[in-house]
Structures
1.
Amino acid sequence: MLVDIEKFIYNDKIYSKCNAADKEMIDTCLHGVRQQIETFKDAYRQAQEEIALLKRENKALSDDNEMKCELNEELNKALDKTCEELETFDMTFNNADFDEVKNKEQWKEWSLHNEKI
């Protein structure tokens, strides 16, 4: 678009009809506009680079989060299996006193409660 404006000013004999002061003002204004356009282009390129970087960081964080969720799921399964074994063990060795026997969920609650302490 700036090229079209410059063509209009310089090629359509408008510029040639201007006095020296007007020509200097036109040249100064167009130079300022060119500088602003370059500044905006640089800012746009920088913003695009930052967006690309943020997308890569977001992907890495998403992958990390997914891995942690999978690990958490595996740990929960292992905890469930362990609590099932504890329930069986508890019933086998404490069958005379059922008040002290814990079921799977009670063992899980106990282990999670004690882990936070």
Note: The chain has a mean pLDDT of 86.
2.
Amino acid sequence: MVGVVLASFCFLTDTFDVAVDAGATVGNATQLRVSYDLTGDGSFERVETYRYFATDPVAGWERYRETAGLAAATGTPGDLANGTVRVEIWNAIGSGPSTVSLGSLSTVQLPYQ
């Protein structure tokens, strides 16, 4: 979770490019959600869940991007004032292990200036 003191919403959408590898596992899919607590009161006023990304059973990084599209969005976007942003990534389908790069291979850009 990342704390933000003040940021202005710029009417764009989240962008992300996450490196995912399920190795030789068949039937896995990774999913990502971004939640915004705009005022830092512990309540998330905006939640965006993206469609899952079905991985292939070949070792090597694959790219999960926001172009997968939104599966669901609740609440209204707004400015952050002492707010918090939470990004969650999980295995939505399948029971095998997947690896997500949290280093320089993955990025998440928020719609704020």
Note: The first strand starts at residue 2 and ends at 3.
3.
Amino acid sequence: MLAVVVGVLAGLLAVSGQASAVEDQYIGKLGFEQRCADTGHLMCLYRLGNGKGAYWGTSKDVRNLEGIFYRTVGTGQNQPVKNNSESVMCALPVYKCYIYFNSGYLGNWDWLYGGEVGNLLLTWSDNASVRIRHEL
């Protein structure tokens, strides 16, 4: 009987599993994208990789990208930003930019330093919130 109970408990644990650890990924490389740089935004997300397509910019944290759209000309214009971005630029060198998989700054995240650009990896087309931090 004890062997049956132990077997059932082991099976339940195997099925339920454990929560996977949250990951972060540095994605930056030195550079900037001129269209975003000209706007004065601290961070821009791009519909396509390598800073291509329509973009959306912000200079503040955004807890939920729901209801925000790419309004600039380019591939992806008028499409939603949430779960629909492939690259990012973080403008000023004294900042770090974070792109989160879930709303509320939760889940896996990609990040880069100011003065860098990068293609999203953990949050590619699955981005739901962004955070900008002043780093000295």
Note: Residues 1-18 have pLDDT under 50 and may be disordered.
4.
Amino acid sequence: MFPSFQFQYHHSAYQDISLLVSKEISKNDLQFEVEGKNYLLLPQHKNQQIGKLKVQYQQKTIYEYPLILNHDIQSSMMDTIGIYGILICIPVALVGIIVTIKRKKDKHD
């Protein structure tokens, strides 16, 4: 497996979230936390859960909402370029090293 380049993917919300809470609680009293991995390996597929949104009031979680992909996310162009770059550069570098060693050896003989 090749290491991947990092990129950000901005995903719009699949739907709005509505909560029924006491009249004494305002939107400013709530804390929102997204829980999930810091990175995802691609590809990721539609309907896959990639994390969850936690709604908290006074440090207590009062609601959890699963974050589900509503479409597939494939490898990025940078991933493809990086993999092909590695696959091309390593053999070219090895050939260059072998040619250099052979030339030095021929000069000494």
Note: Residues 8 and 36 are 14 Å apart (CA to CA).
